[in-house]
Design goal:
The complex is a heterotrimer. Chain A has 17 helices and 20 strands. By secondary structure, chain A is of the alpha/beta class. In chain A, strand 4 and strand 5 form a beta hairpin. Among the domains of chain C are: 196 residues, FAD/NAD(P)-binding domain; 109 residues, no CATH class. In chain C, strands 7-6-15-16-17-14-18 form a seven-stranded mixed beta sheet, with helices on both faces. The radius of gyration of chain C is 22 Å and the shape is globular. Chain C starts with 10 loop residues before the first strand and ends with a helix. The chains are: A alpha/beta, B alpha+beta, C alpha/beta. Chains in contact: A-B, A-C, B-C.
Chain lengths: 532, 404, 522
């Protein structure tokens, strides 16, 4: 086998960030090849048909973070992407009560006031503060983080930008920002709300995908991910992708191809080749070699550097840091085909709350205890679930009258204390979740036509995410900004010339945001002397 | 009379006790949300409604005004620490216009305080304030409760308002001076109706505000309308009210300033000094929230101030930018509220203007876009900084008021 | 109480805890007339020695001296004021149920029980911690910078901070920026094998806090502790307990010219023309001073002594949000005789004994505290002070002083019933390392955070007056608006553990506050 082709850049992995990266490179005139191990593109942003006539968003399930700048720059709507907003949301309590979230400001105020008139008003302060923090962080998302140890003009310039951006806040807001970024979600919510259910509802999004409990410092920041979409002021930045999450990556792939790019599926990369300190291309599992002066990995940092690049090409200290990178499986997922719309007696008839994210929890303590289970190597006995029935809004995903339910489950460990995952344990995990939902929906179990149960192990096996971590690495202080993925290598460049990273392991991290892919493309183009 | 209540997720807005009557009189179905209620924006035409305020009597449904009852041993201490004015001077039966600020001395909201008894007050405000009031109550022996839904309120404003209220049988009103309130009764369907009446308003004209039990609201409205014939009474909506309040020089949240409790951007909050409400700030009364910041601002001088503008021509200068010269090279501020005043025959506006140009008599240039049958034209017209209020008739203050 | 000699002083200090006394000493040395008013009948605050059972004396709060920087100790010349040490340079030993205890002494783990890899890693660990704590120590020596001001001193202090961190060198700087906000469990997991070593180091990180080893921020708490002495931490035991230290501090203050009155509780801080103007005592007496320095915790100072009406509402809300609940308890045992601690040599027994066999053990103990329960199997820091200082107990008898975690301020079942149960748990937990302990116990005492609140007048009963967490740390400690030892009210200063750099018997808050008072007056 010799050299079969010559490309300007090869991207390993056709997840959303790989495709975003590929799109930008192709638009800049590079000849780009994207290689995907699976027989389909999309990574964790896929729509898959695993049961007759049903489409599942079987990994990621909500589009809340995808940057508007990227959607526009890559013309994704022309390539079929439509995002439809949620209409509400609801947290159900064990005693049959509920807290719904409504789009309408007055309806929401009156809903919260049912639980606490105080909280209904504190909510306004809460939203104001959240939006203030979003406004602060937003300009940082699509920038390359500076290396604080470096004296390069670009790094100093970026550091000064950060400093100025921060200084502009004025004294009081600077302190608020410092505190917010380092607080636990539980402590932060305590400063606003008195009602347990209100706090628990808000806290839910702080733990999704993380191996932390709501009382862990740093979880307040994770809440921002829920508000980032609304800050754009662009309606429809937040919601369901029509046709499932695969619609995003399909649109990206289509945009990429329209720019002259080439995608090969079922082409697992065995190794990234390095010669003389330079990346020279990749070797596929069948031995085929493809060369290119630029190789970009969309895989997580552990998979990339511990499995795909030979250790002799990398500094020992770098490998050590990569080993220390925390990428923990903490979430499971159920995808369920339903014969009809299940009823949730807690939710009032005709309430739009059904057409949003549905949760089951009562208190922050319940969430925290769920985390305690995870720490002990077992799935939460009373798991936090984030359910969606997108087919109430999206008519394309199931046969008429049938429904698809996406159930995200926190917490579920990658490694169980009592040994490896087995099929029986997977079923038991699924039963725990289904029972938890069934307790709130009398007809739910009878409506189940098919259920796909995914543990972190399964997510790792299919998608390739180490430990099944949905963010390609914990979003903790030590792994954010200039520390992401590892100190000294936060600027998308690998320690090997010509090799780059573009996955969620890099700044600004996970969620279907696309920012790592875009930032990485900017770094590559700058290195190539091209216009960004 | 009242329709079965729909749940909040189907019908988020509440209806005031006057709603059915207002709906019956609404000719063009223009309703707008206000503090959680649906209220009338325009009944027939804003101009016609406007003239009822300046010429006869108007009814404006004030029920959505958020009302709080404040009571307890520390009620006065609490209010004096919350608000910038010295309320020790506010005796039972008196009303005061007030503002309150955050720690940085930026306005959270304005409103009125009614002293209803020793250490007992009612606060009326445009937006809900419990979050801030609760924080302000830490360390004080005070109970604060929202009573918005327990009190229906109706503003009766205009030169004939006094004679109209006398005609419906409210005796003793002639003694009520501006910014006073008292309990009065009028004959009802079976028993007399007792209510609180204050000589207050948002029109800058002679007028009263009636605060009553929601159950009495229908009868009070009907009686007023019945006696209103020769006195020219008519209900008005928010648009007409906005015209008269600009003439009177009053500020409105979300139009002339954004509450510091809501601002997201940096530097968009406004202090009472900037809003030209420095006269409400009493530095001598002891500490209040924002005092240290406001003292520093007063020493430094405000960066900008809200002023009245008299603009050439007749086209209202909504949302216009202001410049120092006709060329439009240097910005000097922007208009916050604007209206053509049918009574003054002047083109009026309130504007937030940079410090160098706030003196009365300063000349600025206003950029106005004119819609000429969908052909847009940009005009630079001259404007002069003038004193507020633009309209302040003597009848507003006369006690006893004149009979019309 | 005795009556203050004058009606007017240059400064009144509310509270004669160690920080109040240090502050008084420095102000008096600078020629100010200083009055210290202490509510209790002796000075020292939570650094006191008192009888808890007939004939048995114990340091009721802190029980070892290790955080006070040598430079401060020397500067105060406490030896001349009567401070003697019963023991100096005490060892720390991580206990093991099988008697294979691990000495944490200087020079690297004993080596006997550490694997070669762990021994190497521990040496590197100590080097890194020395480097970092050396770089951070100067930060504890002054007021933290204030953000958003254009003051040159604040900018300079921020730049110095940046420079110090840069001077660590690229590798250590990166490591500091990475681990600074991490959790200690992960950090130890990355570096060590020995569960015992990890448990002992994790204990130091979470002691006195509302953290478990897995709580992000626990590394910060560890670095903070090490930075206090710049990496030269030495454990000592004052002769006569920590109360003797306080007494010496009191004598130092008096010698410098400060006037100290005990049993003189302050009722409120007086305000005139928007300035602090003095204090009113519970006795009704008023003392005037243009400077009032509060050694009390921030909640007590602002909401109790001053009153919300002199403060802005937003600031008051921040104060109420300050997390001040303690999770650390204290158990005192009066022993008829000392049981055997199998495997422990006499020298080690005199030291600081840690019961935290591994980090997960601590994490499990912490789980309970999150839900207002006491730890079913708690983590302990134990000393037997009567071994080095027989004056503390009748001849042949002994005192055991135990810092125990976690004991929540508010216990679901209530401390009335929980008290005995938890005391028994602590005795049994320690008994696992000293068979027969229970039979030796003649009397015991448990101080829960609620007891600490009552006895030492610390709101919430927290060691540090306010939780050591990043959002209550350094530039934002105790709350924005009251940093740099100043308060929104001119003339009112803070000097207690609620300020930077926090509590433990360190004394830096008191000295830094004195400097700030003098800067402002200058």
């Amino acid at each position: 086998m010799g050299v079969t082709n010559r490309y300007d850049a090869i991207i390993v992995g056709a997840g959303h960030n790989g495709l975003v990266n590929a799109c930008y490179l192709a638009r800049a005139g590079l000849k780009v090849l994207v290689l995907e191990r699976n027989p389909f593109v999309g990574g964790a942003a896929v729509s898959r048909s695993l049961y007759d006539g049903f489409t599942y968003s079987n990994c990621s399930y909500v589009c809340s973070l995808l940057r508007t700048e990227i959607i526009r720059a890559l013309a994704l709507p022309q390539h079929g992407l439509q995002i439809i907003p949620y209409e509400g949301g609801c947290t159900m309590m064990r005693d049959g009560g509920h807290l719904a979230v409504y789009d309408n400001h007055d309806a929401l105020r009156r809903e919260i006031a049912r639980h606490s008139p105080h909280d209904a008003e504190a909510y306004e302060r809460y939203v104001r503060d959240m939006l203030r923090h979003c406004r602060f962080i937003k300009p940082l998302l699509l920038r390359e983080p500076p290396d604080p140890t470096s004296f390069r003009p670009r790094d100093i310039h970026e550091l000064m930008f950060l400093g100025k951006h921060f200084h502009n806040l004025g004294e009081a807001r600077m302190y608020d920002t410092l505190r917010f970024w380092t607080m636990s979600c539980a402590d932060m919510l305590e400063e606003y709300f008195e009602s347990e259910i209100v706090k628990a509802h808000m806290a839910g999004s702080s733990i999704i995908g993380t191996a932390l409990g709501p009382r862990s410092a740093g979880t307040a920041y994770v809440l921002l991910h829920h508000y980032m979409g609304s800050i754009d002021g662009a309606v429809g930045a937040w919601g369901f992708a029509r046709g499932g999450m695969g619609a995003i990556t399909q649109a990206l792939a289509s945009s990429f191809k329209a720019s002259g790019g080439e995608v090969r599926v079922s082409a697992p990369v065995e190794q990234i080749r390095v010669r003389g300190g330079r990346a020279t291309g990749v070797v596929l599992d069948d031995g085929e070699e493809i060369s290119a002066p630029v190789v970009v990995s969309n895989m997580d940092v552990k998979r990339t550097f511990l499995k795909t690049v030979a250790a002799e090409h990398l500094p020992a200290e770098f490998i050590d840091q990569v080993r220390k990178f925390k990428i923990r499986g903490s979430s499971g997922k159920l995808n369920i085909a339903l014969d009809g719309l299940p009823s949730f007696p807690a939710i009032p008839q005709g309430s739009p709350a059904m057409r949003g994210d549905l949760h089951i929890t009562d208190t922050i303590e319940m969430l925290e205890r769920g985390y305690d289970d995870w720490k002990e190597g077992r799935w939460s006995r009373a798991p936090y679930v984030d359910m969606l029935i997108p087919t109430q809004i999206d008519p394309t995903m199931t046969p008429d009258g049938k429904h698809y339910m996406s159930v995200f489950v926190q917490y579920c460990p990658y490694q169980l204390a009592d040994g490896d995952w087995t099929d029986a344990k997977r079923q038991a995990f699924g039963k725990t979740v289904i029972d938890a939902i069934g307790a709130h929906s009398p007809d739910f179990k009878d409506l189940i036509l098919h259920a796909e149960i995914r543990t972190p192990k399964d997510i790792e096996n299919e998608v390739g995410l180490t430990e099944g971590n949905i963010f390609q690495g914990e979003l903790t202080f030590d792994q954010l900004l200039f520390n992401r993925p590892v100190p000294g290598y936060a600027q998308y460049r690998a320690p090997v010339r010509g090799m780059y990273m573009c996955g969620s392991s890099t700044h600004p991290g996970g969620g279907v945001m696309g920012a790592p892919g875009a930032n990485s493309a900017a770094a590559i183009l700058r290195d190539l002397g091209r216009k960004v | 009379m009242s329709t079965p209540t729909e749940p909040h997720y189907r019908q988020p807005l509440l209806k005031t006790p006057f709603h059915e009557r207002a709906r019956a009189l609404s000719q063009i179905d223009r309703f707008i949300p206000w503090a959680g209620y649906t209220t009338v924006d325009v009944f027939t035409s804003a101009e016609q409604e406007y003239f009822s305020v300046r010429n006869a009597s108007s009814l404006f449904d004030l029920t959505p005004m958020v009302k709080y009852r404040v009571a307890g041993a520390d009620a006065l201490r609490f209010l004096n620490r919350l608000m910038t004015r010295d309320l020790a001077k506010l005796k039972p039966g008196k009303v005061a216009y007030v503002v309150w600020c955050d720690d940085a001395g930026m306005i959270i909201d304005d409103g009125t305080v009614f002293c209803t008894g020793p250490n007992e007050y009612r606060i009326c405000t445009a937006e809900r304030q419990m979050d801030w009031f609760t924080a302000s109550a830490i360390g004080f022996d005070v109970r604060i409760s929202e009573v918005t839904e327990e009190v229906a309120a109706l503003a009766v404003q205009g030169p004939t308002s006094y004679s109209l209220l006398r005609a419906v049988g409210l005796a003793g009103l002639e003694r009520l001076k501006p910014f006073e309130h008292g309990q009065f009764s009028m004959p009802g369907a079976s028993a007399p109706i007792t209510m609180m009446v204050s000589r207050t308003g948002f029109t800058g004209d002679l007028g009263y505000e009636l605060w009553m039990e929601p159950a009495d609201a229908g009868v009070v409205w009907d009686t007023l309308m019945r006696h209103g014939g020769t006195r020219g009474v008519r209900p008005i909506g928010s648009q007409a009210l906005n015209m008269v309040r600009i003439e009177a020089g009053f500020v409105l949240p979300n139009l002339d300033f954004v509450s510091a409790a809501h601002t997201l951007r940096i530097g968009t909050e406004r202090s009472p000094i900037e809003l030209g409400l420095g006269w409400l700030v009493d530095f001598k009364k002891g500490h209040f929230t924002g005092r240290r910041a406001l003292l520093a601002e007063q020493t430094r001088g405000p960066r900008r101030q809200l002023v009245g503008l008299d603009i050439e021509g007749t086209k209202p200068a909504h949302n216009s930018l202001l410049y120092t010269q006709r060329s439009g090279r240097t910005e000097a501020g922007s208009i916050t509220s604007a209206t053509w005043s049918p009574t003054c025959k002047r083109n009026l506006a309130l504007a937030m203007v940079d410090a160098p140009y706030i003196a009365t008599g300063s000349v600025l240039w206003v950029e106005i876009y004119l819609n000429r049958e969908l052909v847009w034209e940009r005009r630079m017209v001259r404007a002069r900084v003038v004193e507020r209020p633009f309209f302040a008739p003597a009848r507003r203050r006369a006690t006893p008021p004149a009979e019309f | 109480m005795t009556t203050p000699a004058r009606a007017r002083y240059d400064a009144v200090i509310v509270g004669g805890g160690h920080n109040g006394l240090v502050c008084a000493t420095y102000l008096a040395r600078a020629g100010r007339s200083v009055l210290v008013l202490e509510a209790a009948d002796r000075v020292g605050g939570a650094a006191v020695t008192r009888e808890f059972a007939p004939g048995f004396q114990v340091s009721a709060g802190a029980h070892l001296l290790h955080l006070m920087p040598p430079a401060l100790l020397n500067d105060l010349d406490l030896g001349a004021h009567g401070l003697k040490f019963a023991a100096h340079n005490l060892p720390t030993v991580a206990l093991s149920a099988d008697g294979q205890h691990l000495s944490m002494q200087a020079g690297g783990g004993s080596g006997a029980r550490l694997s070669a890899a762990d021994a190497r890693a521990y040496t590197e660990w100590r080097r890194l911690m020395r480097q970092i704590s050396g770089a951070l120590h100067p930060l504890l020596n002054g007021a933290p910078p204030r953000l958003g001001t254009d003051a040159w001193s604040d900018r300079k202090s921020l730049m110095r901070l940046g420079w110090r961190i840069r001077r660590l060198g690229r590798r250590d700087m990166r490591e500091l920026l990475r681990i600074g906000l991490m959790n200690v469990h992960d950090l130890l997991e990355d570096r060590f094998e020995s569960p015992q070593l990890k448990g002992a180091l994790a204990l130091d990180a979470v002691l006195g806090t509302n953290y478990g080893p897995r709580s992000p921020g626990s590394v910060l708490s560890l670095l903070y502790r090490l930075a206090a002495t710049g990496g030269t931490e030495v454990l000592s035991q004052p002769q006569g307990g920590l109360g003797a230290l306080s007494a010496a501090l009191g004598r130092a203050a008096t010698a410098a010219g400060a006037e100290i009155h005990t049993a003189a509780p302050v009722e409120r801080i007086l305000v005139k023309d928007d300035r602090a103007s003095g204090v009113a005592l519970a006795s009704g007496q008023q003392v005037l001073a243009p400077v009032v320095v509060s050694n009390a915790d921030p909640k007590t100072t602002f909401l109790g002594l001053l009153g919300a009406e002199f403060l802005d509402a937003g600031f008051v809300r921040r104060i109420t949000h300050l997390r001040t609940r303690g999770f650390t308890g204290k158990v005192h045992l009066a022993l008829d005789r000392l049981p055997k601690f199998p495997g422990l040599d006499p020298e080690s027994l005199r030291g600081r004994l840690l019961v935290a066999p591994d980090a997960d053990y601590i994490e499990r103990a912490y789980n309970h505290a999150k839900y207002n329960e006491y730890s079913a199997v708690p983590m302990l820091e134990v000393t037997v002070p009567s071994l080095s200082d027989p004056s503390l107990a009748p001849a042949g008898s002994h005192v055991v002083s135990i810092v125990v975690q976690y004991a929540p301020y508010e216990l679901n079942e209530g401390w009335a019933t929980g008290r005995q149960r938890f005391t028994d748990i602590v005795i049994d937990t320690l008994g696992a390392y000293a068979p027969g302990l229970r039979e030796c116990v003649r009397a015991s005492e448990l101080l829960t955070p609620a007891d600490i609140e009552r006895e030492f007048r610390i709101h919430g009963g927290h060691w540090h007056h306010a939780e050591i967490a990043f959002d209550q740390f350094f530039m934002v400690r105790p709350v924005p608006g009251a940093t740099q030892y100043e308060t929104p009210l001119p003339g009112l200063f803070l000097c207690g553990a609620g300020c930077h750099p926090g509590g433990g018997v360190m004394g830096l808050a008191g000295r830094n506050a004195a400097r700030q008072v003098m800067n402002r007056a200058a």
